[in-house]
Amino acid sequence: MKKPFIALVVVSILLAAAAPAFANAGYRGARSPAASGLSTPLLTTYVVQSGDTLFRISLKFNVSLSAIITANGITNPELIYAGQVLIIPDAGTVVTPPAATAPPPASTPPPAGGTTYTVQSGDTLGIIATKFGVTVNALVAANGISNANLIFIGQQLLIPITGAVTATPPPATTTPPSPTSPPPSGATYVVQPGDTLYGIAIKFGVSMDVIITANNLTNPDLLFVGQQLVIPAPGVIPTPAPTATPAATATPTNVPPPAGGGAFELGGQVNLFSAVDKMKQAGMTWVKIQIKWSPGATAAADAINDAHNKGFKVLLSVAGSNPNDISGGANFDNYAAYVGELARLGADAIEVWNEMNLDREWPAGQINPTTYVDLLRRSYNAIKARNAGTLVISGAPSPTGAESAFGLDHVWNDDRYLNGMAAAGAANYADCIGVHYNEGIISPKQTTGDPRDSYYTRYYPGMVSTYYNAFGGKRQLCFTELGYLTPEGYPPLPSFFGWAGDNTIAEQAQWLGEAASLSKSGGKTRLMMVFNVDFTEYDADPQAGFAIIRKDGSCPACASMGSVVGSR
Fold first, then answer.
1. CATH architecture under which domain 43-89 falls
2. How far apart, in whole angstroms, are the C-alpha atoms of residue 139 and residue 304?
3. Per-residue pLDDT tens for 499-518?
């Protein structure tokens, strides 16, 4: 459990009127309804959904990117929007682009009163458009933006007045200067920060399809800085290159495959790690400690040695200090080297990142399970190469259903994100799938009856089935956070956490014991890390309310869990 997502508190308050309060980060909302399509002879139409890219749409309908681009007269394949209707030509059908529309009347300068805006961290064109009451298209046209998904901090944008005729756009300035000049076509090109496949295709005067074919790209939405691309000469039909994994992500030959399973074990997340006797009474054999990585950080053995000296195995949950440190895939190898060194120093388990489906943990506008799996793969290889016995746990997403309220730039529903991880091959790079569950107000035995709603994140069984089934049962689950909040013994909870206002200490103890019993007997759960053991902070983020060591020093939950797994 982390601090609430303060940056969206105003939106969260508005959302509360339409959806129940959510425990983790203010992210909770209705799921997006599906849109319907139309049909025409030989041509199908498709309504773009949130999260779509042209590449994914082309795969869905088994047609080429170029065919969709041509059929729709698309000038920038990276600029599509939810609700847009696309013509999908049948595979093999020769299409001609729609007739060009007449150019608009000569434009005039923006009327007096127009303003400029300096792009801030976390901004997107959608956010800026909403802020000023204009459309994204108006911003794109007014500023000559060639890629609406690529703006940068400090960039000056012209904000046109609502209803005004947009001025002739200035030269595009959305992409910082490339550090190297592109080589001639028919050679290779090294991907630079800010590059996209569309931009590279335009730069060399070739189609995206030929670059995809020449490089055997399985996902053209995922490029990384330093990647070398073969650029065929215009008009040349490329022969697909032999499939190869980039050197940066190659799997060392001595890396073992993920473990198939293991017996259930119990642990807890600590702050001071001073309640050792009570943790042993609860039957805990593991301790979880969250640490923050930043580029250039040096791994230390202190926490590992302390845990081992106290008789516990240690799970290190390694999150980032600043999401922007990994923007565009930057520093992935640095992070992997860091967690690899922790494994060498003796970490028994490592959780690779934390709640990466939220923009407080992952760069806004870049949340993508495929990108995360790239980080997971590099980390897995580094960890196993240095200590084959270290358990690798995929980062636990935040349990949420709020993407329709905040948009995919800021949050992905965890079920959608999980399915994306599975499709990207996460099971090949994790011994265990990370899970968070900390919004319960009923027994974990129940599958119905939560007074808020029936959304699966409310229920322990709903979380187990959703996460386990996403990977087809190929991997066990590791609850890296599982806790129940109660204000008993403390002042009333902040309104944001009011959903737990009626939970009692006795219920916390009962439910944690039941969760341990279900996890132990179900065979699907490898680890259950209680959130939390001994936190004392009780303010806007009432972490002490989750603690099993209560304000008076007692631990009723220690007895209930110990009766299930056996006290030490």
1. Roll (3.10)
2. 52
3. 999 999 999 999 999 999 99
